[in-house]
Design a protein that fits this description.
Chain lengths: 438, 470
C-alpha cells in the first residue's frame, strides 16, 4: 500500500524543524513513496516478476545564501538526524551564491486541482499475466517473428513537497505501462521493433492485441534493409521520434543553458526560430496527462505556456535559481517541461508523403549526436525510402546530419498529433538533411 | 563493512533462515543488501552550483527457477518486509520446482582497497580544488566562456546471503573527476570534456598538480574543435586512436556477446561461436581483475569472483560473458559478469573492462596508408541495436586524413557500422594499447554500471561517417 499524505508530511516537518534547529535559515524538502509491480514475459512464458517499494527524502538546507543537499532512502529518524547534521555542516562551508534561495512566496502554488492523475485500481499480477499472454499471442502469429518479449508495469506514487516558508503540497499519481518487443528474421538476419503504451488510468490502456500486432508488423516491415547512397534529401520523422525535436528545443531554451551561454538559441528570444505556421505549447494542466502537474519541483505554480507562437520563440523554461541570474521570474519549469507538444499542422500524413517525389522516412535513431551548444546534429538512423507517396523498402546503417538552427526553420508538420507521451509531435518533414550511407 | 541488521528487528541468522526457506525449491537466488553512500560537488559558472550527499540503503531478494526470475526490493530492512518479499517470490514461483545450486567459487584476491573516498578528502579541500580548476582554466584567456568541474565519489558495501548461510561481502570505492570547458572565438563556441577516475581515492588521480593535466586536456580538445570544419559524409577508411575509442569494441562486439542476448538468440552473434568474427590478429578480452580500474570487481553482484574472460582470440569467437542464470541455461559457468546497478535492479550479464590487445603496427603506418579518411581520437558515447547489429558512436575529436597526412579537425559526427562485420574490416592493429582514463558508464535495460575500455590504434577499412559534407 502506498503511504498516505500524513505519514510523508510528518517526515517533511521533522526534516524542516531539525534543520532549523541546527541553524538553517531556509529549508526545502520532498518525501516520496512509490510502489511498483512489473511482470514480464518472453516467448509466451513468464520471465520475471518484480516488486519495488521505495522511499526517498530529498532535503536542501540554506544558511543565508549558502546551500547544500542530501538524499536518502532510509527514513528512520536516527538516520535522518545524522544526515541533516551532515547537510548543515556542508552548508556552512559551501561558498555563498547570491542566487540561492527558495522561490518567491507569491509564486507558490495556492491550490491543488484534481487533474485526474491517480487511478487506485490495482491490477493483480494474474491479470497482468493474462494481458501479456494476449500481447504475445498476437505478436507471434506471423512465422517471421522468432522472439517476443512483453512487459506490464503498474506504478503508484505519493509525495509531499514542503518548505520553511510554509508551502506544503503533494498528491498521488499512478501509471500503467505495457510494451512488446518483437524480433523478426529472414535469411538469418534479424530486426527488432516495439510498441509501447503508458497511461494514468488502467481503463485507458491500449488493447493487448493492438500492442502485439503493431510491434510484430513493425519488426517484419524492417526486414531486408538496404544501405542507400549518401545524398541530400528531405527527411520525414515518424511520430515516435519527431518528439525528439521538442526535447532538443526544451534543452536549448532551459534557463540554465541560456544563463550559462551554452545554447544555440541564446539571444533568440522574440526571434523567428521556426516557420511562422508553428506553435509549441507546454501545458501542465491536461487531465490524465503523463506530464501533468499542479506545481513544479520547487512548488511554484505552473500554467500553460506558449513557448513558440507563429514561429517566434516566446518563453524560456525558468526555475528560481537561473531565473534570478537572468532577472526573470520562475514560470514553474524547475524540472523541465510538462505536457509539451506541437500544435497540429495542416497536411494529412498522406499529403506530406506525397509532397515530393522522394523522401527518407525515419522510424528510429540511435546515438546521442545532438550538440546543444553548436546545434550540430548527427545520429544513426533506420527507416524506409518513400517514393511517390509509398514506403518502398527498409533502409538501415545510415546517418542523418544537419544543424538544429537550419532544421527548425525547415519543418513542415502533418496533422496527425496524438497525446501518447508527455512530449508529443505529429509526423514532421525536415526539408533538406545530409544522409550518409554508401 | 556494514552491519545491515544493526538497528533493525532482525538479526543475520533470522535473515539467513528466511533466505534458506524461501529458496528451498528454487534453482538459485540470494538476498542482496547494499549500503551506498555517494557525493557530488559541482562547480559551474564560477560558483559552487551544488553539493549533494546521498545515502541509499536497501535489499533486493531474488529467487530463480528455470528461466523465471522473481524479484522484490525495498528500503525497509525488517522482519515484516523480508517476509512480505519472501511471500511474493514464493507466490510467483509456486508452480515451479528447482534444485538449488550451492556451488559458488571463493577467492582471496582483492582488486581494490576498502577506502571511503568521500571521507578521505575533506570537503574544504574539494571546494578549494574546484575553485583552483576554475581559476586555472579562466587564466588561459577571455576565450574561456564556461567552466564546469565536479567530484563524484562513492562507497558501496554489499552483502550477499545465499541459501544455507553462505555470505559474501565486498566494499567498493569509486571516484570520478570531470572537467568541461566551453571556448568562444569569433562567435563560434565549442566544448572540451575530460575526466579521470577509478577505484582509489581522489588524490591518487589528482595529486602533484595532475588535475592541471585534466584541465589542459579539456582545453586542448575544445581548442581543436574551434578550428573544426564540417565532417565528410559517406563510407571511408577510419583510423581510431588508442584508449577511449575502444567504445567501438564495447558497442560493436561487447553487448552482442553478453550471455542473455545469446541464450535468447536475439543477438546478431548467437550462432557464431567458434567462428571467425574478426580479422586474424584481433584478440578481445573482458577483464574484471585489473587493479583499481573503474570496471573491476573483486566479486560480481552474485558473489562470483571476476576473471579475465577471452571473448575473441585471433579473430575466433571463444566465449560469451555470463551471469549464473544464463550460464546455467546455456550449460556453462558464470564468468563473474553478473552485475546490477543497485539493490533496485535484477542481475544481468554485463561488461567490466573490455579490451582489444596490442598488435604490431604503429599509428604512423596506419595513417600514412590512408588516401582519404578520418582519424578519430576521442568519442562522446555510443549505442547499439544488438539484434540488427548496427552500432554508432560520436566523435568529439577527429581529423581528416588526406594522402597519408593528418589534416584539419572536423566537427563532431556519428560513425555507424555493423557489429558482426566491422571487426573483419580491421586491417591493422596497433602496438600502442592504452586504457581509457576511467570515465565510462554502460547503460543496459535502464541500469548504469561503471565500465572500462582499452585498445591500441586500429585501421578500419570501411565505415560510414555521418557528416554534412558530401
Amino acid at each position: 500500500m502506498i503511504r498516505d499524505q500524513e505519514f510523508l508530511s510528518d517526515i517533511a516537518f521533522y526534516c524542516i524543524e531539525n534543520s532549523k534547529k541546527l541553524g538553517a535559515t531556509d529549508v526545502g524538502v520532498k518525501v516520496i513513496h512509490s510502489v511498483s509491480e512489473n511482470v514480464s514475459f518472453r516467448n509466451k512464458k513468464l520471465d520475471e516478476s518484480n516488486r519495488a517499494d521505495s522511499f526517498a527524502v530529498n532535503l536542501t538546507t540554506y544558511i543565508e545564501k549558502k546551500k547544500s543537499s542530501i538524499n536518502s532512502s532510509d527514513l528512520s529518524k536516527s538516520n535522518l538526524e545524522k544526515l541533516i547534521e551532515r547537510c548543515i555542516d556542508a552548508t556552512k562551508i559551501t561558498p555563498s551564491d547570491e542566487n540561492n534561495s527558495l522561490p518567491d512566496k507569491d509564486l507558490m502554488s495556492k491550490e491543488i486541482r484534481d487533474l485526474n492523475l491517480y487511478d487506485e485500481t490495482h491490477y493483480p499480477n494474474d491479470k497482468k499475466i493474462e494481458f501479456l499472454k494476449n500481447v504475445e499471442e498476437t505478436a507471434s502469429t506471423e512465422e517471421k517473428i522468432v522472439n517476443t518479449e512483453a512487459g506490464f508495469t503498474e506504478n503508484k506514487n505519493n509525495f509531499i513537497l514542503a518548505n520553511s516558508n510554509g508551502f506544503l503540497g503533494g498528491y498521488k499519481t499512478s501509471n500503467f505501462s505495457s510494451s512488446c518487443v518483437a524480433v523478426s528474421r529472414i535469411n538469418g538476419a534479424m530486426e527488432r521493433d516495439y510498441e509501447f503504451g503508458s497511461t494514468r488510468f488502467l481503463q485507458d490502456m491500449m488493447k493487448p492485441e493492438e500492442i502485439g500486432k503493431i510491434a510484430a508488423d513493425k519488426a517484419i516491415k524492417k526486414l531486408g534493409p538496404k544501405k542507400i547512397k549518401s545524398e541530400k534529401i528531405g527527411v520525414i520523422f515518424d511520430k515516435r521520434i519527431s518528439k525528439g525535436i521538442l526535447s532538443t528545443l526544451a534543452s536549448a531554451i532551459s534557463a540554465s543553458a541560456i544563463a550559462r551561454g551554452t545554447s544555440f538559441l541564446k539571444d533568440q528570444i522574440n526571434s523567428e526560430v521556426f516557420p511562422n505556421s508553428i506553435n509549441i505549447i507546454d501545458d501542465p494542466k491536461i487531465e490524465k496527462g503523463l506530464g501533468s502537474q499542479n506545481f513544479d519541483s520547487e512548488g511554484v505554480e505552473t500554467n500553460s505556456l506558449k513557448l513558440v507562437e507563429n514561429g517566434i520563440l516566446k518563453n524560456y523554461l525558468i526555475d528560481t535559481y537561473y531565473g534570478k541570474k537572468l532577472n526573470l521570474k520562475s514560470n514553474g519549469r524547475s524540472g523541465g517541461t510538462t505536457n509539451l507538444y506541437f500544435e497540429n499542422g495542416t497536411l494529412s500524413f498522406k499529403d506530406l508523403l506525397n509532397s515530393e517525389k522522394k523522401f527518407l522516412y525515419i522510424t528510429e535513431t540511435i546515438g546521442h549526436g545532438g550538440n546543444i551548444i553548436t546545434g550540430d546534429y548527427s545520429v544513426g538512423a533506420s527507416g524506409f525510402m518513400v517514393e511517390d507517396g509509398e514506403l518502398t523498402y527498409p533502409v538501415s546503417e545510415i546517418t542523418i546530419a544537419g544543424n538544429f538552427k537550419e532544421m527548425f526553420k525547415n519543418i513542415t508538420l502533418a496533422n496527425d498529433l496524438e497525446m501518447k507521451y508527455s512530449t508529443n509531435a505529429p509526423t514532421l518533414l525536415i526539408n533538406q538533411m545530409t544522409v550518409a550511407g554508401k | 563493512m556494514s552491519n545491515f541488521f544493526k538497528e533493525t528487528d532482525i538479526d543475520t541468522s533470522q535473515a539467513e533462515a528466511i533466505v534458506t526457506e524461501t529458496l528451498k525449491n528454487c534453482d538459485d537466488g540470494e538476498l542482496y543488501l547494499e549500503n551506498h553512500k555517494s557525493e557530488s560537488i559541482v562547480l559551474d559558472d564560477n560558483k559552487i552550483k551544488s553539493s549533494t550527499y546521498n545515502s541509499d540503503l536497501g535489499y533486493g531478494f531474488r529467487a530463480v527457477t528455470g528461466e523465471v526470475v522473481a524479484y522484490s526490493h525495498s528500503n525497509d530492512i525488517s522482519k515484516e518486509s523480508l517476509r512480505k518479499s519472501s511471500d511474493n517470490l514464493k507466490d510467483t514461483l509456486k508452480s515451479k520446482k528447482g534444485t538449488y545450486n550451492h556451488e559458488i567459487p571463493k577467492t582471496n584476491n582483492k582488486y581494490y582497497e576498502n577506502i571511503n573516498p568521500i571521507e578521505s578528502k575533506t570537503f574544504d579541500s574539494k571546494i578549494d580544488l574546484l575553485n583552483s580548476v576554475n581559476n586555472y582554466l579562466r587564466s588561459k584567456g577571455s576565450i574561456v566562456n564556461q567552466v564546469t568541474a565536479n567530484f563524484l565519489g562513492e562507497h558501496k558495501s554489499i552483502e550477499i546471503i545465499r541459501s544455507d548461510n553462505q555470505v559474501l561481502k565486498d566494499d567498493r570505492p569509486l571516484v570520478r573527476f570531470n572537467v568541461s570547458v566551453v571556448l568562444e572565438k569569433d562567435g563560434k563556441k565549442e566544448t572540451g570534456v575530460y575526466g579521470v577516475g577509478g577505484r582509489q581515492s581522489y588524490d591518487d588521480y589528482l595529486k602533484d598538480g595532475s588535475w592541471k593535466d585534466v584541465c589542459d586536456e579539456a582545453f586542448r580538445i575544445a581548442n581543436v574543435n574551434l578550428e573544426s570544419k564540417p565532417a565528410p559524409a559517406g563510407e571511408m577508411k577510419v583510423v581510431l586512436g588508442p584508449g577511449w575509442p575502444a567504445i567501438l569494441i564495447h558497442e560493436a562486439i561487447g553487448h552482442g556477446l553478453e550471455g542473455d542476448f545469446n541464450r535468447k538468440k536475439t543477438s546478431a552473434f548467437h550462432n557464431l561461436m567458434g567462428q571467425q568474427v574478426a580479422s586474424e590478429g584481433v584478440t578481445i578480452v573482458d577483464d574484471g581483475t585489473l587493479h583499481q580500474r573503474r570496471g573491476s570487481l573483486t566479486i560480481d553482484d552474485e558473489g562470483t569472483p571476476t576473471e579475465n574472460t577471452v571473448l575473441i582470440e585471433n579473430g575466433i569467437l571463444k566465449n560469451y560473458m555470463q551471469d549464473r542464470l544464463n550460464a546455467r541455461l546455456m550449460g556453462t559457468k558464470s564468468t563473474g559478469s553478473g552485475r546490477r546497478e543497485s539493490y533496485k535492479h535484477v542481475v544481468l550479464p554485463r561488461m567490466r573492462n573490455t579490451m582489444m590487445l596490442s598488435g604490431k603496427y604503429s599509428q604512423d603506418e596506419m595513417i600514412s596508408s590512408v588516401d582519404k579518411g578520418i582519424f578519430a581520437v576521442s568519442f562522446g558515447g555510443g549505442q547499439v541495436d544488438i539484434t540488427s547489429g548496427k552500432f554508432v558512436f560520436n566523435c568529439t575529436e577527429a581529423y581528416e586524413i588526406n594522402n597519408g597526412k593528418i589534416g584539419s579537425p572536423i566537427k563532431g559526427a556519428t560513425l555507424i557500422g555493423d557489429g558482426p562485420s566491422i571487426l573483419k574490416e580491421v586491417s591493422l592493429v596497433g602496438n600502442d594499447m592504452k586504457l581509457d582514463p576511467g570515465i565510462g558508464t554502460c547503460g543496459k535495460a535502464g541500469q548504469g554500471v561503471p565500465v572500462g575500455v582499452a585498445q591500441p590504434s586500429i585501421l578500419i577499412n570501411k565505415m560510414t561517417v555521418g557528416g554534412t559534407k558530401l
